[in-house]
Amino acid sequence: MADTSMGAYSDPNTTPPMGQAIPLGAQHVLAMFASNVTPSIIVAGAAGLAFGSAEQVYLIQMAMLFAGIATLFQTVGVGPIGARLPIMQGTSFAFVGVLAGIAAVQGLGVALTACIIGGVVHFLLGSVIHKIRFLFPPLVTGLVILAIGLYLIPVAIKYAAGGAATFQMEAESFGSLKHWSVALTVIVVSLILKFFTKGILSMAAILIGLLAGYALAFALGMVNFGAVAKAGWITSIQPLPYGFEFNLGAVIAVTLVSIVSAIETVGDASATTKAGANREATDKEIAGATYADGLGTAVAGVFGGLPNTSFSQNVGIIGMTGVMSRHVVTIAGAIMVVCGLVPKIGAIIASMPLPVLGGGVIVMFGMVAAAGLNVLAEEKMTRRTMIIIAVSLAFGLGLNLVPTAVQYLPGVVKTLATSAVAPTALMAIVLNLVLPKDMEEA
């Protein structure tokens, strides 16, 4: 067996034997699969699409298909596009809060149009990303990631308890023991596998936990496979399935999150080269990663997919295996493309009862918040730092929780003010720029 220790495949252009490369590629897919499809399910629900409907299945298909295509943009590359590093792309959680709000009020047409335009802006950032990195130190990016996680946690609890009457469960069964038993099964199995096993079982802990919850839900009569039987074997891709509807507020909100997503990708590119080759990412690699991020988002939006970004959990696989081969992740991207072209796979995912999904996203969304705290831990907790954290989160989450507090603002401004992520990011950036850095330490 070939040596897969650190340094054996530290060159992105080398490839392990196919007997190792294919399982390693599949491991990348397992590590990100659940996180990749979850945002589409949430945004579809916010838009009022029936759980398990053909429209929801289509959004799930596009999430898988364009995660694979965006990954190929990164690993194979075209001209300046693509870092040509083992960076796995997937649907971004960062956009969920903004897109769910837009989809609920203005529809998927407005939300996806904003994704297309935001993706174009994201793409253009590739040429200037190195010049604006100073606006997004760990203090700002950590706050934004934390705000995303905290915003999403109530959604996870609602799903675990059975959703609402507008979803697949009846309102009177909300919070029932049956729903919570399924959700807790997902959580317990995921935690056991994550902390008491190694290798593929640990990396795919959430996915296996979801399968365990799915099995219990099936035994309790909560699963309906009707949509699976009706689904075809080859998907039919539709350009602009919800039309093209421009709304300035939606575009600004998505674009702001796109900028934050671009900075996250810079961090992931740097973490990948550090983990796999013990070096810093070059300006060319960072620019290429940003170009691929934006292009993947824009193209996905055209066909009904949500924005893509680099997946941090897959960086952990690089560090664990020491295999930095981009061709391994190319295999993973190809697997996702195949999954996206088979509607029955999307229908099986869509048949998952909400408590099953809820158990998984309690863990995932909690980890998003924890990731934000981990980034913030890089900052020294001075009085200045704590003021920025306190004021930014108070505005970002407070206005989201009490949207009527800004009910008299113009539509564009109100969309931004109640999106949680945008006001947190804006407040953190402004305060970080204007507050003196020599304030008394706490």
Instruction: Tell me the fraction of residues in β-strands, as a range.
Output: under 5%
Overall mean pLDDT stands at 83
Strands of the widest sheet, in order across it, are 1-2
Number of helices: 19
CA-atom Rg in angstroms = 21 Å
Helix content: 55-70%
Class derived from helix and strand content: mainly alpha
Largest sheet, in brief, is: 2 strands, antiparallel
**How far do the termini sit from each other?**
54 Å
Order of helices and strands: HHEHHHHHHHHHHEHHHHHHH
**Shape annotation:** globular
- The parts where pLDDT drops under 50 for at least 5 residues are 1-7, 165-170
Number of domains: 1
Family: Belongs to the nucleobase:cation symporter-2 (NCS2) (TC 2.A.40) family.
Organism: Planktotalea frisia
Membrane topology: Multi-pass membrane protein
Keywords: Cell membrane, Membrane, Transmembrane, Transmembrane helix, Transport
How would you characterize the overall build of this protein?
The protein is mainly α and 442 residues long. It has one domain (18-434). It has 19 helices and 2 strands. Strands 1-2 form a two-stranded antiparallel sheet. The termini are far apart.
Index terms:
single chain; about 450 residues; mainly alpha; two-stranded antiparallel ribbon; 19 helices; about 65% helix
